[in-house]
Model the fold of this input.
Amino acid sequence: MNPLVVHPMHIHLADFQILGRGTCDVSGFDVTAGGTLAPDPATPVPLPPRR
Done:
């Protein structure tokens, strides 16, 4: 289990229907890390100002 993942998603007693298929850009996936390295969870992301 990856210690950087706060809560892995798991669903019980649910059915799913595929609505479509498409391609995804997986270039950010790092096999050795077991996930993505960007964005870095330690780097703060500024929020836009309130309206």
Summary: The first strand starts at residue 29 and ends at 30. The mean pLDDT is 81.
